[in-house]
Request: fold
Amino acid sequence: MKIKDLFYAKDDKFDITLSAKIVNTTFILLIGIIFWNYAFSRLNYESQGLSVFLEFKYKFIFGFFITIMISIFSLICSLIIGSLLAMGQKSRFLPLHYFTKIFIEIIRGTPLIVQVYLFFYVVGTALNINNRYIMGVLIMATFSGAYVAEIIRGGIDSIDKTQIESAKALGFTNFQKYRYIILPQVIKRVMPPLAGQFASLIKDSSLLSIIAVNEFTKNVQEVDSITFTPIENYAVLALGYILLTYPISHLSKKLEKRFSYGD
Reply:
């Protein structure tokens, strides 16, 4: 193998060999290590190394576990909410149609931090839901559900109208039309963007720390207030979220590659 083959892709398909992946990944990591080493040397910061993590590892692990639990339940609920909102957008009953459209626009058009405060203090109080973890899941599911609804709606709209007309001509009922023609194609098309949306949901869950949900970010902030070592603590936080989101991002790319041809 020529050295050039290690650093240049042969074509636009990026069919790269394992050795080229290892060499380039190592090269980029080395550049990153050199840069951050230089930056820290200029900062004149006395690092505590792994001592903070080892001392508070159970607190970090507990927060990490809570974030996983909140993310899993939020993912499931957001898929349900998103599917219902997408169906509402397709409804011929106009009050429902406009309700879902306005709801989605408001959720997508306002910052998540505002929604966290409003849902927790206003909606939660009105519905007498005092459990911060339940409210955290509902808030994240509602926020992500609006985006999931648009992904599903876009998938449905991408189906060729001639297929729908053919189904009508063959005498398919509305249920049969969705069951045998629309849904099998929509599922393939929305899987990659859904995976990306779920990765974003996990990262966004860090905002639940502002309502004292004891998730990963909240625990890291508490440790930081005790040890005054922000760089070590937030490095642990960054690494934890990478561990959570990288598998989903990797899956998203795999799905995008798999379903991009031959629908």
Summary: The CA atoms of residues 199 and 248 lie 6 Å apart. The mean pLDDT is 86.
